[in-house]
Amino acid sequence: MSRTTIGLPSRQQILDFIAASPTAAGKREIAREFGLQGHEKIALKAMLKDMAEEGLIDGKKTAFHRMGGVPRVTVLRVMAIEDGEAIAIPDSWSPDDGAVPPRLRLIEKGRGTALKVNDRVLARTEEAGKGWIAHPMKKLPTFTEQMMGVVEIDAAGKAWLAPVDKRVRHSSPIQDLGNAEKGNLVLAEPGGRSLRAGVKVTEVLGDPLAPRAFSLIAIHKHGIPFAFEQETLEEAQLAARLPLSEDKREDLRHLPIVAIDPSDARDHDDAIWAEPDGEGGFRALVAIADVSFYVRPGGSLDREARKRANSVYFPDRVVPMLPEVLSADVCSLRAGEDRAAMACHLTIDPRGRVTGWRFTRAIVRIAEVIAYEDAQSRIDQGIADANLTNLWAAWRALNAARSERDPLALELPERRVRLDEKGRIAEITLREHLDAHRVVEDFMIAANVAAAKALESKVAPVVYRLHEAPSREKLVAFKDYLATFDRKFSLGQVVTPGLFNRMIKDIVDESEKALIMEAVLRSQTQAYYGPRNVGHFGLALGSYAHFTSPIRRYADLLVHRSLVDAYGLEQPAPRSNLLKTSGLSDRDREDLERVSDAISAAERRAMEAERDTTDRYMAAWLSGRVGEVFETRLTGVQKFGLFATIIGLGGDGLVPVSVLGPERFHYDEKTQILAGEQTGTRFAKGDRLRLRLAEANALTGALKFEPEEGGGAPIEHRGRPGGPKKSVGHIAGKRGRPSNIRHQGRKK
To answer: What is the pLDDT of residue 119?
Structure first.
């Protein structure tokens, strides 16, 4: 509830002033504009804090802007140079983000601009006046500097570079083939000042359809570092030989700790144990690989891990954050082997609340590594040992507390690509989500919360995992979307995860429920890392950090280092050339925000690369089914066509407006409806159509659909008021795996 006094401007007046201001507006500028003095300035400060907490403005102290639209830190691509100033747009922009990407002015230090068209930069963004500005943090490799494509030879014998990026619509002439041949996947660079002058091949990568090629395309396209320098490998070998110093670590080898992981997990960085405390509660342990003992700040290992920021997981390979001798061996919690661990001891009361915690460095010996499916089977068949039984009992208590907290719960599908021993696609399915997944997840969440609160209690630096409440702009869009279902959403109410959960629970029709869940997901802000706490909206938590995956996330490693300092857990590396401290470096302490921004951007890069690769595998899987008719649901509508998803499989593709029929179609941007001029046929998000797969391009991951013979009218509308009611039958489309917007990120 906001705190206001007589004389204060309204929230809308403040928002209007921020929007109209030609420069970034701070508390001082707002107070001057409205003539506020003395106690009114104090009330204004409180009011601005409320507005920031409600997601109406950002939380800066010196300047504010409306929330929503563009991430705080993102990758931008220069599209023009106007009056010596670079104008950029978000490098990744989909129709779901908006029909037209926003233009941002790049504010560079010094005179003029050193940037040129098509340059890519990592930048910090802010809204100023009626537009957006961005402050470049670093320049990134551009697509034109390092292009990837497939060599094609036309009938006249001329060579062309066909792009593998579905956003690039045209092939480029090749002026220098080098050693490349027709059909080769290659890297190329411009041969002149523009692409019209042609490109020259710089490296031949091989067969674009060979096993492991799809992930290779994503690695190069997104600029993911994948080769370690020799210095880094040598330092990793040196670190791997460090003794564990048993006399300085808590010995937990007597506990039957287990790691529950995917059957194909490449590393094991967490393990759990629990037992009843005799008073209705539980004593629990979350053991995490002690990566900070092996990776010291300032060394080559640390610099490489910081640059990568996280491991990237593909169906056929993993690009690890750390060299394999550490990530898959010495740091990985293998069964039956002594391992260094950071131990989080938890006290859980009978209601599932974590009432106490302590952190130690320990030696553990994992009793068993169990696949999720096997652990679930033992529980279901009643053949689980005491340890698994205790874990499930403790989880039921944690789950009860979770239900009381009521975090966001969305049932969204996740595709799983399974390859055979030769790297070929065996099948693509939707992942099944078991109680075993929830058991591990809730233990991890408890440890992550404990780490954040433990560091807060010590007034120590924290890299928080942050997820802000939905912005007003996104809530307005969500409200408008619900109106097409004859459902109301009040913008004046307090928005909580539970509000969304209750809304979804009340929907009986499974088809409509899936659409609303996707709309809820689109309304959410993107989670990120930062040193200033704003809470985690999706998990309904006030303090949350990432502590449980330091093998594959740099953010977790920073949290471990801060715990080492806060709890006096330093253990120097004896008889080695490694740096002595395993706590935070001065550099990290002084510039934690910049580091957090960089690893947030690297996380988004990894997610895009993983999604692109899955799309390519999906297109390859479907390439043998071109011409087949599928039941689909529309996920987007634009003036140039429709975006459709295959029900039960998840393949996404485009239906160009040109294939919908000979009549002219009109697009209503507000309602996002495409309507035929003569027949009145209307298309909107959620409509179900029978579509024929017309094209499946494995190189770009693009799918194209066309209506099956007999017309392209929707076979089932999602119930828009005033829309046609031509329903030709209900198609079951219940979809799988609950995701609960889980931002702690379990391994793939």
So the answer is: 80
- pLDDT per position as a tens digit, 278-322: 999 999 999 999 999 999 998 899 999 999 999 999 998 999 999
**Bridge partners, residue 201, by sequence:** 188
Dihedral Cα 67, 73, 75, 79, nearest 10 deg: 50
CATH of span 147-208: 2.40.50
Give the contacts of 617 (CB within 8 A, at least 6 positions apart). 214, 315, 417, 425, 428
Neighbours of 711 (CB within 10 A): 11
Q: Are 364 and 293 in contact (CB under 8 A)?
A: no
Cβ(346)–Cβ(449) below 8 Å: no
For 223-244, the pLDDT digits (tens) are: 888 889 999 999 999 999 998 8
In 230-281, which ranges are E strands?
250-251, 258-261, 270-276
pLDDT at 268 over 90: yes
Superfamily assignment of 626-748 in CATH?
Nucleic acid-binding proteins (2.40.50.140)
Distance of CA 645 to the CA centre of its chain: 20
- Mean pLDDT, rounded, for 583-587: 88
Say if residues 76 and 106 touch (Cβ distance below 8 Å): yes
pTM: 0.76
DSSP 285-297: EEEEE-HHHHS-T
Residue 699, CA distances (Å) to 360, 477, 652 in order: 49, 34, 15
Superfamily of domain 73-140 in the CATH hierarchy: Nucleic acid-binding proteins (2.40.50.140)
Q: What's the rounded mean pLDDT across residues 463-474?
A: 92
Does 153 or 42 have the greater pLDDT score? 153
Helix ranges, 535-627 (H): 554-566, 586-590, 592-622
Residue located via tokens 């790297």? 423
- Domain regions of the chain by residue span: 1-66, 73-140, 147-208, 230-467+531-614, 472-524, 626-748
- Alpha-carbon gap, residue 516 to 510, rounded angstroms: 10
**Is residue 585 a contact partner of residue 355, using CB atoms and an 8 Å limit?**
no
CATH of domain 1-66: 1.10.10
Alpha-carbon distance of 450 to 347, in angstroms, equals: 10
Long-range contacts formed by 129-132: CB under 8 A, 24+ apart: 129/19, 129/20, 129/21, 129/22, 129/23, 130/19, 130/20, 131/102, 131/103, 131/104, 131/105, 132/69, 132/70, 132/102, 132/103, 132/104, 132/105
Residues shown for the chain: 748
Better pLDDT: 413 or 338: 338
Domains 1-66 and 147-208 share a fold: no
pLDDT score of 13 more than 70: yes
d(CA 8, CA 37): 10
Which amino acid would we find at residue 99? A
Q: What percent of the chain has pLDDT over 90?
A: 42
Average pLDDT estimate for 473-485: 85
State the DSSP code for 93. -
